[in-house]
Amino acid sequence: MWSWAFTFLVIAVVAAIFAFGGFITAAVGISKVLFFIFVVLFLVALAAALLTQHPRSY
């Protein structure tokens, strides 16, 4: 689950760079939408990873 959380975080950051940095003006709207979608997916995956952790037995 952690790998999914970090994958969504990286995708969200890349989408934010394109959307808020103004590099690609034609895709600004799409990038903003993708940014918020992947931030939500990141938070869901992070919550799932934290809630499904098994206690370690030493």
In terms of topology, how is this protein built?
Blueprint: H1 2-21, H2 28-51
Helix pairs in contact: 1-2
- Weakly predicted, low-confidence segments: none
- Major sheet attributes: none
Total of helices: 2
Helix-strand sequence: HH
Helix content: over 70%
Describe the fold and architecture:
The chain is mostly helical. The chain has one domain. 76% of the residues lie in helices and 0% in strands. It is built from two helices and no strands. The longest helix is centred in the C-terminal third of the chain and has 24 residues, at 28-51. The protein starts with a helix and ends in a 7-residue tail after the last helix. The mean pLDDT is 78.
Core attributes:
mainly alpha; 58 residues
Quick structural summary:
This protein has 2 helices and no strands.
